[in-house]
User: What shape does this take?
Amino acid sequence: MIVAKSKCVKSSMLKFYEARDSLEARQLIDALAAHRVEATVLGEYLSGAAGELSALSFPWVWLINNADLPVAQSVLDGFLASRGSLPTKGPWVCPSCEAQVDAGFDICWQCGAARK
Ligand SMILES: [Zn+2]
Assistant: This one.
């Protein structure tokens, strides 16, 4: 991906996270702000431009100060986890024999039935 240089990009800024859409980018910025991490969105295109969809227009969240990266990373982890985009795995119950199977297995240890 080619990123055009922009006059508003300061040298201390750090490209942090590629959001799926501008809503996600805004939510992440709000979460960062709650931890006193300044961030901004670059790469957003005007929405509603004659219904055009550009696959190249994903908004990028930038950190204003790259020294905030460690905090920002933990905020991002929490943000993604709370949104449910990280798979939360837990034990499952076999539909065939009702044995409890650890999350790491996709077939039942007892009867070999596949996880539903
Ligand atoms: Zn089973």
About this structure: The longest strand covers residues 14-18. The chain has two domains: 14-83, 88-116.
